[in-house]
Every structure is written in C-alpha cells, then in structure tokens.
C-alpha cells in the first residue's frame, strides 16, 4: 500500500522499491476499473433489452384492434370471402404470412381493421355454452344390455358402427357410407340406451345434444350452438353425435307466431343444413331419437337426411323376458323369480317399465331390511306400479 500521508517523508521518485510498489498499485486500480467497466456494460445491456421490450409492448398497445371473422371460402391464394361477425360477407386479401392451407371454411381469422385483410388464423373457439353443456359422455352400456332389439342393433351396426370402424369397406365398393339414423318409438323403449351402447362399443366419443335443452336454455343462440356442436363433434372424431328429443327442434313448422317459435325454426334450419353439409365419409355419425315421429317436420324425414329410420317397438313377451333377465342379473335374489308371471303382467309395458319394476322390487327388500330380493317383492312391485293408474309412464306407453 502506498503511503502518502503528510507525516511520512516525501517518497523518493527514483527509489526502485517505490516505483515497483507504485506500479502494483496502478495495476490493481486498472483491474478494478476493468471490472467496474464490465459491470456497467452488462447493466447497459440489460437496460437496453428492457427499452426494447417496452418499445415492442408500446407498439403492441398502440396497434389498432383486429376484427374477427370466419372464412366462407378461399377464392385463390390471395383472396378469400369472410363473414365478419358484425356485418356482411367481404372479399378480402390474405396476408402472405398466413398459410393458405389453414384457411378452411368456418376457420376463425383476425382481420386488419382498415383493409380487412386476413392477418392471422385464430384457434377455433367453442362457445362457453358448449363447454358448460358437458357434451362429452362416457357411456358404459353394451349391446348385451339391450334386450329384444336384435334387428335394430343389427341395423345400427351396419349404419353407424361399420362406417366408423371400417370406412375402407365402403370406399372399396364405392358407395357413400350412411351418415346417421333416426330412432323412434314410445318412451322407455331403449332409444337412448341403444345410442349409448353404439358409442361405447365403437369407442367413439359420445356427444349428446338434447333438443328441449337447446330450445329452452339457449334462446337466441340455438342455431349458432348447433353449428358449434357439429364442429365439436368433428374435432372429437370418431364420434357419435346423439340428438335426443329431436321433436323439440324438428317438429313441423306451424304457425310461427312467437319469437320463441321463430328461434326454434332457425335452430331447425341450422340443423338441416348441418345434416346436408355433412361429409358422409367423415367419422362423425348422427343418431337422432324421438318419441313423436308423427310431429316431425317432413324435411327431417326426407331421404338423405337420415339413412335409416329405425323403430324401437314396445317389447313383446319374448323381449320382456330378456329385458327382465338383463335387469335382474345383477340383483341379489333368493329363490326363483317367476319371470313368466312378470312378463304376463307387463303386457304393453316398455323396457323402462320393466326396469322400474326391478328397482321397485329392490326397494321393497330394502324396506323389509333384507339384503336379498324375493319373488314376492317383484309381485308387490308390479302391484304397486300397475295399481297406480296415474303413473305417467303407463299413460304414455299404454301400459296396463
Ligand atoms: N330394450 C331394453 N333392454 C333393456 N333395458 C331397457 C330397454 N329399453 C329400456 N330399457 C331400460 O329403460 C331405461 C330407459 O330407456 P331409454 O332411456 O333408452 O328409453 P328411450 O327410448 O330413450 O325413452 P324416451 O323416448 O323417453 O327418451 C334404460 O336405461 C334401460 O334401463
Ligand atoms: Mg331417450
């Protein structure tokens, strides 16, 4: 350390010892300054980066908002027709940064505010309603759980399962595979059950859309929802799109007095156009169900909309025997159940009625604090259900 205090004698500038120590001092100082310089430099770089980031952010915040639209069709590599969310269809240019292959009809795109040019492709959006509806179900039903509908199952296998599992069969032969079926029949005859079984047996996504919900809950938006649900089905393919209670939207266009009726009408038109525009070879199959085929709009039944119209009849004695066996299989039963008697007593009843009787028999056992069901419980159940003339299931199914 160099000592420069007043008390010390003036150093001799020619003293070699002094010179060496002074040189060391300068070297240390140089090293220190070098380190400081590096630190300042790195700080400068950091600030520079921050300035750049802030500039980009500022640029982003200052840029005008983009409009959103949907592709109607692409005309060539440079132009497309888009449907803006507010106004009419527009013919616009496509920015060179946009990959034209991504521009399929109905793709969501961002449009320049001034020129409406397509500047970006946006991810597909599902209406929060579509998500809220929890459309995807995981059914566990199997064909063996469906009793007495063998011919119907066979038809569904041909029209729904085969095209999903072996589309190449249809391609080889050169025919369009069926797109979907319409199930109709009295309430409780197994329409919903069948649809679930197909979805499960084919391992397809099962998307369930309930007509009455669509109409009641989504007034003003039914048509858009139908479009988005079909899109959702395509994205989740292979899938079975099950339209339950089709009559709620597909009933005959009568007097359109109220705005609610007009809304249902719009939803129906959208549904028809989705059914028409459907790619037959795609792996989305439609199953619709109704228990009021008599009030369905004839447009729904026109050939080409549904490939097959399949009826689920009320089960005859033989079918009821099978259905009783299906529903008693898992029950803890002591002794023999006189199924013949039960079948005889349920003439005119549906599969749902049979199931009801089994459940009710179980309830009798629980009430009697038993852990098993006896033949008598089934007799009591039948008495309870058939004795009660007001049950709605009997009124609607003609169950006596
Ligand atoms: N053929 C059948 N085999 C076995 N169980 C059946 C059969 N039909 C109906 N069931 C029982 O009845 C229940 C209700 O039937 P499902 O919901 O399939 O009737 P649906 O035809 O869809 O009636 P709706 O027209 O009222 O919608 C089923 O979950 C099932 O337990
Ligand atoms: Mg049903």
List keywords for this structure.
alpha/beta; 400 residues; binds adenosine-5'-triphosphate; 15 helices; five-stranded antiparallel beta sheet; Rossmann fold; 11 strands; OB fold (Dihydrolipoamide Acetyltransferase, E2P); elongated; binds magnesium ion; 4 domains
Describe this structure as you would to a colleague.
- This protein is of the alpha/beta class.
- It is 47% helix and 14% strand.
- Helix 3 (150-165) crosses helix 4 (167-173) and helix 11 (317-328) packs across helix 13.
- It folds into 4 domains: 1-62, no CATH class; 67-122, Nucleic acid-binding proteins (OB fold (Dihydrolipoamide Acetyltransferase, E2P), Beta Barrel); 130-311, P-loop containing nucleotide triphosphate hydrolases (Rossmann fold, 3-Layer(aba) Sandwich); 317-397, Helicase, Ruva Protein, domain 3 (Orthogonal Bundle).
- The model is unreliable at 389-400 (pLDDT under 50).
- Bound molecules: adenosine-5'-triphosphate and magnesium ion.
- The site of magnesium ion has 4 residues, from helix 5.
- Adenosine-5'-triphosphate is lined by residues 146-149, 187-193, 289, 291, 323, 326, 351-352, 355.
Summary, kept brief:
The protein is of the alpha/beta class and 400 residues long. Helix content is 47%, strand content 14%.
Overall CATH class of the largest domain: Alpha Beta
CATH homologous superfamily assignment of the largest domain = P-loop containing nucleotide triphosphate hydrolases
> From the 3D coordinates, which CATH architecture of the largest domain would you assign?
3-Layer(aba) Sandwich
CATH topology of the largest domain: Rossmann fold
The global form is: elongated
Number of helices: 15
Oligomer: single chain
Class computed from helices, strands and strand pairing? alpha/beta
Spatial strand sequence of the major β-sheet? 6-8-9-10-7-11
Poorly predicted runs are: 389-400
Beta percentage is: 5-15%
Number of domains: 4
Largest sheet, described in full? 6 strands, mixed
